[in-house]
Amino acid sequence: LVTSKTWQLDSRPSKESQQLDPDNLLWSHAQIRRLEAEAIRDSLLVVSGSLEPEAFGVPVKGNSSRRSVYLKVTRNALDPFLRAFDFPEPFSTVGRRDVTNVPAQSLTLMNDAQVASLAVAWSKRERARQSSTDQDRIRNMFLEALGRPAKTDEILRAQDYLASVAERQSEAAKERSNLQRRIDERRAAISQMIEPVRSRLLSEVSTKPESVELSLPKPIGLWEFNDSLNDSVGVAHAEAHKQAELANDALVLGNKGYAVTVPLQQTVKAKTLEAWVQLDTLDQRGGGVMTIQTVKGDVFDSIVFAEKSPNQWLAGSNNFQRTESFNGPEEVEATNRAVHLAIVYHEDGQIVGYRDGEMYGKPYQSKGLYEFKKGETVVSFGVRHLPPSDKRMLSGRILRAQLYDKALSSEEIKASASGTSTAISDSQILAALSDTQRAKLEADRVELAGLEKELEGLLSTTEEEGEHAKWTDFARAMFTFKEFLFVK
């Protein structure tokens, strides 16, 4: 069939066919048609080098790297990417699919988190090719994405585009640097005002314990992993699975090992996940340190390592529902020592990450928290979420973990990370300041919040900057080419 003349017709009509068959009713030339939703998704996976060739098995979720034919179809929760490209609604029989060309499709290709991660993967793969010039990379990307060599004028336009992206990034980097300098100045001014007061209040505690009320809230779950997997403050005792075992006052995860508690006996919404962990290696991806989840793992919140970006800590969640990058620094020490990690989920949906008592990257506002029900919720260690699979497992050792049914403050996180049982609250510090000092502190904090919001708006759309970001931007641009989406 594919060797037939009809199959191999060009979509560009000849002058004769334009006159004799302008509407192409006689198939004098090929019809231009858009790829179906599943084919577009599979093309993105193939071009980026992310496709998992495994055949057969159970249905998977949309963030999987398997072919679209294996995606689970749930009538009330259709995959948003496929839906944007006219995946048929499974509520009734569909004799023929709609084929639309609407702005939502371009916006999906530009803003979808999975498309962005695939562009990052493609960029990294292209940059990993040794001895490749810019022209070589452009030619190779055209060949991979469009199945044809790039034309000379296309190479020149691509080079101009890359140069403009680099210039734009350079200007944005200067602006971000200036904003960061101003943010650091405001933070330093705030610190100079409140730290002497904090120190004075702490000293008062040592001499007059009754003078300041100081105590960390009690966790609802505490796992010390010294001689058992039991919950030291409650009844959410854990059980080890696979090769997980206790050794040297830590839960050693071994090869694919993990632990899961019995169901919690209270409902949890606003919360804090806290753990001390040491990794076996930094090149692992997607393993969970500590996770609160429904019994089957359908909904979860987790401390995750390197799921979206290498060497970065993440607040993992089901289908990234409550997940954005903290844009924190890459982890470089966790293989040499245990690091303290905490993720705080505030009632209003704000999610804040901490490492060794200090804020990790930038907080972000989620769409809202999930309420984990009493008797229907478990905590796991060493697996991103249940059921366990290779890409969800952490390799390392967990020394201690704590779960709170409230959002801890930054002062409380710092105190817990340092191993003290006391913390000075913000209200106590404010009460110890003069009226003038309080007014100045409030003005500094308002200015700091505005600067941080402005900086957040300037953050690069890619996970990294510089050369990699330039090629990632180009990869995302190629995903939007009509020739990538249409068969000509």
Describe, in plain words, how this protein is organized in 3D:
By secondary structure, the chain is of the alpha+beta class. 35% of the residues lie in helices and 16% in strands. It has helices at 15-20, 37-48, 80-84, 103-111, 113-127, 134-146, 152-207, 410-418, 426-432, 435-458, 467-479, 482-485; strands at 33-34, 221-223, 238-241, 245-246, 251-252, 258-261, 271-279, 287-294, 300-305, 313-317, 339-345, 350-355, 358-359, 364-365, 377-381, 396-404, 486-487. Strand 9 (300-305) and strand 10 form a beta hairpin. Helix 2 runs parallel beside helix 5 and helix 5 (113-127) crosses helix 11. Mean pLDDT is 90; it is low at 460-464.
Keywords:
6-stranded antiparallel beta sheet, 9-stranded antiparallel beta sheet, 488 residues, globular, alpha+beta
Record the SSE blueprint.
Elements: H1 15-20, E1 33-34, H2 37-48, H3 80-84, H4 103-111, H5 113-127, H6 134-146, H7 152-207, E2 221-223, E3 238-241, E4 245-246, E5 251-252, E6 258-261, E7 271-279, E8 287-294, E9 300-305, E10 313-317, E11 339-345, E12 350-355, E13 358-359, E14 364-365, E15 377-381, E16 396-404, H8 410-418, H9 426-432, H10 435-458, H11 467-479, H12 482-485, E17 486-487
Antiparallel strand pairs: 1-17, 2-16, 3-6, 4-5, 5-16, 6-15, 7-11, 7-16, 8-9, 8-15, 9-10, 11-12, 12-13, 12-14
